[in-house]
Every structure is written in structure tokens, then in C-alpha cells.
Amino acid sequence: MGFFDALLGRSTPKKANLDDLFALPPAVLTLEAATGMRPTGTAAVAFREVEGGAFAQVEQESRALIAKDPDCTVRQENDGFGYTWQVISEAQANTSNLVTNVHAVNSSLENQGFGPMLLCSALYLADAEGTRAALIYLYKRGTFYPFVQTGPHRRDTALEIQIRGIVSGELTVEPDLSKWSPVWDAPGMTGQ
């Protein structure tokens, strides 16, 4: 941070550290114990697609890597907002396995110079009543936040704040609530 940034109260956001994703499994256990929310077996990586053979090759390589895992499947979806989601499903809902595969997708894109195209990664959870939540990792900020969609363009901010309190000891939670962007109907959010 420079002198003028300090003087004007600007700060430099934390850079992404993909290894932060490996804090998710213990955070999910803590969340499950406190709320009953369990992993759904689905996670996803969202990125802005770029035209060109190099990007297509990296996408294909990451899908092929995940496809080697007999417990995982991977599909690609466009969300209508200009982002592509690689959606990973794990038959046993094994959070560690999901996180490893999400890390592989992010790393593949980052290592080939496509890091700026990464938007976020999401790990999905649900409780016995069917309430669905996501723990979102913001690539550009290197932080997490919870998102709970309760209907078409409706969210449960009270539950999001509760989840923040539960996982904040294990995850670097985004302090700026205005950065907690909704991921309306994201693949995995609606049970698909």
C-alpha cells in the first residue's frame, strides 16, 4: 500500500490463495454441528469464458482431470449473466474430495494465465427442511461469504449472518457485506 492509499483510507484487498479452499472441510463440519446443514455433494467454479483455443484446452483438461475420479462427475453450464460454471458432483458428498477438485479447476485456469477470468467457487449445503446455502469463495478478494437463496431473487440475510458467525473462526470471511453478491439460481443452488 502506498502513502496516498494510506492517507485516503484505501486498502489493498487480500489476493487469492487457492489453498484457502482447503479450510472448507473443517468449516463445513462446524457448520453441520451448529445448524444441521450438510454438504449436498455439489460444488462449482464460475469464470468468464474467453474465446480461443488455449482457454478451451484448459477447460477441457480440468474436466478430464475431474472425470478420472470415479466418484465425481463434471458438467458445464452457462448462467445467462456471462459466466460459465463447471459443476462438480461427488457421489458420497465428500467435502474434501469436492474441494480438491474445485482447487484443481481453479489452479488449471490460474496456471495458464486465466486467473483474472475466475469469479468464484461455491460449495453447496442443505438442511433437513430443504434450505440451501452456499459458501462462496471470491477469487479476486481471497475471502468467503455465505449465500442463502430462499426463492426467486430472495435471500435469507439473517441466516447468512448466522453462518458467518459460525464459520468465521475457520474461514476468512469477507468483511464488506456489499461484496456478498447473490448467485441467483446458480447451478447447485437450486438443487439441480
UniProtKB/TrEMBL annotation:
Pfam families named among the record's database cross-references: PspAB
InterPro entries tied to this protein: PspAB-like
Domain of life: Bacteria
The protein's name in its UniProt record: Uncharacterized protein
Record organism: Brevibacterium pityocampae
Organism lineage string: Bacteria, Bacillati, Actinomycetota, Actinomycetes, Micrococcales
